[in-house]
Amino acid sequence: GSALAAIRAAGEFAPTVHLSIQFILAARPWELHTMRQVVRRGCNICHLYGELFQRGGLIATTSATATIRKL
Question: pLDDT at position 12, please?
């Protein structure tokens, strides 16, 4: 995700090896806002978390694991 892209070194890429999404409410045709963070980055694995909001309410959460590779 974009949180990991912000801290990747040059020549690194990070394919997702696990992704989990919990849909809490249906999204409506209004503006969406996100909160995303790198929970922990190790040498080879990175754990990510995110939340999706609409009109101030939480509508979805996600967690992911990516493996860090060199080009």
Answer: 87
